[in-house]
Amino acid sequence: MGNSSHLHPVPEPQENIENRAIGILQREAEAFACATQVPCRAVDSRGNFIGGDSIESSCRLCFQSADSGESAISTCASVLKEGIRQSERFGGAYMSFCPDSLLITVAIVRNEAMSVGALVMGPALLVDREELITEELARNTDSDQASFGRMTNILETMPSLDTKRAKALADMLENAASHCSDNFEGRLDPKIE
Q1: For residue 117, which of 10, 12, 19 has the smallest C-alpha distance?
Q2: pTM here?
Q3: CA 39 to CA 32: how far, in whole Å?
Q4: Residue 6 three-state SS
Q5: Can you spell out the DSSP letters for 83-135?
Q6: Interval 147-184: pLDDT, tens
């Protein structure tokens, strides 16, 4: 009767799927960050940062306020994993705060209903910068003046958002993740460059 392999497509190897997902996620995260001037990073399906710095390596606020670097990394990772879990569970973008009151927003990218990664926006300030510096950090930090100065310098570099803009950016992040999913599943033609 001939070859019937065209009736049952051969599934794409997992390694190819992951490599395609990484490229799509990286491009979308870079475009989002460039357009919004708010940090955006890509994470793979296991929650590992890909193609750039992780939040804790660029933010480093948690390193200044934590007892140890290892504690800071695990805290940041657990906040991120919870955001990914909640975004998967409820759909859409999930907004949460790290222990140092910085906003992190996560939106899942899917391929055939399976999570292949996520876009992570942040960290950003949703509270008044001066209020956070004077009240939160001064009250919760038992560190020396030099450490407090480093934390203040880190906060000075963070984007500050009002609630309306944070919600609009979360909606845009959700749209960007949806665009990644469409691109990944082949529903969009690749851009001609």
Answers
A1: 19
A2: 0.79
A3: 8
A4: coil
A5: HHHHHHHH-SEEEEE-TTSEEEEEEEEEETTEEEEEEEEEEEE-S-HHHIIII
A6: 777 778 888 888 999 999 999 999 999 999 998 888 87
